[in-house]
Amino acid sequence: MIKNIRQLIKSSPMSKELTAIVCAGGALAAAAFVISLAIEPDISMLWGLFIGWLYMSVCYIYLADTVNSISSMKDVRAAKRKMRICYFMRFSGLFLLCWIGFETNAYNVIGVLVPQFFPKFILYCLYYTQIAKKGKTNGRS
Questions:
Q1: What angle do CA 79, 83, 89 make, to 5 degrees?
Q2: Of 130, 127, 119, nearest to 61 (Cα)?
Q3: Is the residue at 70 inside a domain?
Q4: DSSP letter assigned to residue 40
């Protein structure tokens, strides 16, 4: 299974972005756990952040695979349907994870939700560094 996920990431045209989201997301989740330890020592936050990071990674790999597959589709209705299904599956899974967390108290639900905000931040940083590199190569600062 891990080999299939690696293959999916490497074969995707968005492999650089997916790798950045997965790796930097794990680092940000670890940093969030250290910060949460300073606020209130609780091991359930570790489980919540781990589950949230894992789910975030799976969702973005699934999203990249969906976008890659619909980019070659000729039928617009089928492409829209596939994108709606992807959206529904990702948010239904997040809702289910939060519901399970609230019902069982096995992990912190806030820890599941926090990593869902990481990809936007990571992509902004990634694109900002690319723009900054292009500016320096052209003689602009």
A1: 145
A2: 119
A3: yes
A4: -
Three-state SS at 24: helix
| CA 86 from centroid of its chain's CA atoms | 14
User: Tokens 């990481």 identify what position?
Assistant: 118
Assigned domain for 14 exists: no
pTM, to two decimals = 0.79
Per-residue pLDDT tens over the stretch 36-83: 888 888 888 889 999 999 999 888 888 888 888 898 889 999 999 999
- Two tokens, residue 66: 């969906």
Residue 101 falls inside a structural domain: yes
Does residue 53 contact residue 26 with C-beta atoms inside 8 Å? yes
Q: How far, in Å, CA of 134 to CA of 102, rounded?
A: 47
CA 67 to mean position of chain CA atoms? 15
Q: Is residue 100 part of a domain?
A: yes
As for how many domains the chain has, the answer is: 1
Contact 96, 35 (CB under 8 A): no
Nearest alpha carbon to residue 108 among 62, 58, 15, 44? 44
Q: Is 105 left (phi over 0), alpha (psi -120 to 50) or beta?
A: left
